[in-house]
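Action item from last meeting closed. Structure (249 res):
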């Protein structure tokens, strides 16, 4: 169980994060009979278990849950370095990989905190043609964490592509986004970072940072292009923007 996700009154300065009770096993490992401590992963392998057996997957919130519409609060450096937040980051990473998704914001796992994890892998866009990858300016992005981000778009929101969200499962729509953004944030160690991104990575950043301010792509989409994933794959995936607008616009 997750315990309370709602901050208790009078304890505003304390971290109100309660991770599952299994966390001790990940932090401290297991002490098997032969007298020294090994990690749970080593123990699981020793016992013939697969890595999947020990993944900690968080429940992803979906549209209609209030946490997705709240303004998330910033984290202090001390909070970022706490065991609770470090565990949350690890669980969010595993949850994002499992989904799979290219980004996951803390409100999407129930925590109104200004924290998101991002990673785009080559295998995720293997289904796109070389031309589609080029026009999306999509490149692999290594795993990283953004905390308390402040974003400055470097261009108008005029790049139009279909976009989806793990919190709006089963649907997609065209969302205009800026081609280029600059983001100032903290990383998972609490150190300041500046991210200059363009293309699909800039889109991911805009989508995730929106989550930290209670905004979903639904608020920015061209609403007449909203369609189910199935219909998108069946009818529109390889059509031009002009064909799409003629059909749905
Ligand atoms: Co999303």
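Sequence:
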């Amino acid at each position: 169980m997750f315990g309370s996700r709602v901050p208790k009154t009078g304890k505003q300065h304390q971290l109100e994060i309660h991770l599952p009770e299994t966390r001790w096993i990940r932090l401290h490992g297991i002490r098997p009979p032969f007298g020294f401590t090994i990690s749970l992963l080593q123990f699981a392998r020793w016992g013939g278990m697969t890595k999947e057996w020990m993944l900690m997957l968080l429940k992803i919130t979906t549209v209609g849950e209030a946490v997705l519409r709240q303004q998330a609060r910033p984290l202090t450096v001390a909070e970022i370095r706490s065991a609770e937040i470090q565990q949350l980051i690890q669980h969010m990473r595993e949850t994002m990989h499992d989904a799979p998704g290219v980004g996951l914001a803390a409100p999407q796992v129930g925590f109104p905190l200004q924290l998101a994890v991002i990673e785009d892998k080559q295998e995720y866009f293997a289904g796109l043609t070389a031309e589609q990858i080029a026009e999306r300016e999509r490149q692999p992005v290594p795993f990283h964490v953004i905390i308390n981000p402040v974003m400055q778009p470097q261009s108008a929101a005029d790049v139009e592509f279909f976009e989806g969200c793990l919190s709006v499962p089963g649907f997609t729509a065209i969302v205009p986004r800026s081609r280029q953004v600059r983001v100032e944030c903290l990383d998972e160690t609490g150190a300041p970072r500046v991210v200059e991104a363009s293309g699909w990575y800039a889109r991911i950043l805009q989508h995730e940072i929106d989550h930290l301010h209670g905004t979903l792509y639904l608020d920015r989409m061209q609403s007449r292009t909203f369609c189910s994933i199935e219909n998108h794959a069946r009818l529109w995936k390889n059509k031009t923007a002009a064909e799409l607008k003629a059909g749905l616009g």
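Note appended to the action item: Residues 83-98 form the longest helix (16 residues).
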